[in-house]
Write a structure and sequence with these properties.
Elements lengths: L10 H14 L3 H26 L9 H8 L2
Length: 72
C-alpha cells in the first residue's frame, strides 16, 4: 500500500480523470500516480539537461560535427 494524500482539483479535471479511468478500467488513484511519476521523470530529465547546459566542462559539439558523427 502507500500513503494517502489529499489534493484539490478543478471539477473539470476530476470529470476528465473519471472518464479516462472508466475508459481504461483503471482507478483514478492509479492514473494520478502514473501522471505524477511521468511528471517527476520529466522534471529530472529537464534538470539534468539544464545542469549539462550550464557546465563549462561539458564539450559543445556543432551541428555539422554531430551530423558527421551520426553519418548524416
Amino acid at each position: 500500500m502507500g500513503t494517502a494524500i489529499s489534493i484539490r482539483l478543478p471539477d473539470e479535471l476530476v470529470i476528465e480523470l473519471g472518464e479516462i479511468a472508466r475508459e481504461t478500467e483503471r482507478s483514478r488513484s492509479y492514473l494520478v500516480q502514473k501522471a505524477i511519476e511521468a511528471y517527476l521523470e520529466d522534471m529530472a530529465d529537464l534538470q539534468i539537461s539544464l545542469d549539462r547546459l550550464h557546465d563549462p566542462a561539458d564539450e559543445v559539439i556543432s551541428l555539422d560535427d554531430m551530423k558527421k558523427n551520426l553519418g548524416l
